[in-house]
């Protein structure tokens, strides 16, 4: 294993893992072995329905088109 660099979360030099999702180099503390992702991606995919859309503060009738 020749992973070189700093943990992109805490900037420590002892990186051992590469996130399978975002490709970031992370140290052991910031890598979730169970999912193979960094802690941020792990939290991101933690559970379906976990992320809820923030209520839009625009009133009804305003045409908001999003791509
Ligand atoms: Zn770290
Ligand atoms: Zn990640």
Description of the molecule:
With 67 residues, the chain is mainly β. It has a domain at 1-45. 9% of the residues lie in helices and 16% in strands. The chain contains one helix and four strands, in the order E-E-E-E-H. It has one helix at 39-44; strands spanning 15-18, 25-27, 31-32, 37-38. The longest helix has 6 residues, at 39-44. It starts with 14 loop residues before the first strand and ends in a 23-residue tail after the last helix. The site of one zinc ion has 8 residues, from strand 2.
Ligand species? zinc ion
Strand content bin: 15-25%
Q: How do the SSEs run, as a string of H and E?
A: EEEEH
Instruction: Name the average pLDDT.
Output: 81
Please outline the major beta sheet.
2 strands, antiparallel
| Cα-to-Cα separation, first versus last residue | 41 Å
Poorly predicted regions: none
Structural class: mainly beta
**Radius of gyration of CA atoms, rounded to a whole number:** 17 Å
Morphology = elongated
Number of strands: 4
User: What's the helical proportion of residues?
Assistant: under 10%
Q: Helical segment tally?
A: 1
Strand order of the largest sheet: 1-2
Descriptors:
about 70 residues; mainly beta; two-stranded antiparallel ribbon; two-stranded antiparallel sheet; 1 helix; 4 strands; binds zinc ion
């Amino acid at each position: 294993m020749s992973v070189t660099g700093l943990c992109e979360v805490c900037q420590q030099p002892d990186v051992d893992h590469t996130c399978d999702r975002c490709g970031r180099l992370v140290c052991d503390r910031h890598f979730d072995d169970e999912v193979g992702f960094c802690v941020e991606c792990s939290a991101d995919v933690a559970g379906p329905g976990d992320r809820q859309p923030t209520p839009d503060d625009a009133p009804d009738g305003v045409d908001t088109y999003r791509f």
